[in-house]
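pipeline stage [seq->struct] | target=Cytochrome c oxidase assembly factor 3 | organism=Pseudoneurospora amorphoporcata | residues=69
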Amino acid sequence: MSGTPRPNSGYYDRNYRQSAALIRARRPYIFKNAVLGASITAFTLAVYAYTLNVVGQDEFEDVRVPEKK
């Protein structure tokens, strides 16, 4: 084996670029994947913002801080 891929043996050419067949096969899923990725990102950012907001409102009055000696 020479270590180089055979031409037209898969979805990538010898320069590791996507072939037309791979682009056609992925086309129906691009929009759905983008919407799902945006939804997951929005949920993550919302949880992060909510957490910072809730923690920022706490006064921590019930936490006892030991005195330095």
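stage status: PASS
auto-comment: Residues 33 and 39 are 10 Å apart (CA to CA). The chain has a mean pLDDT of 85.
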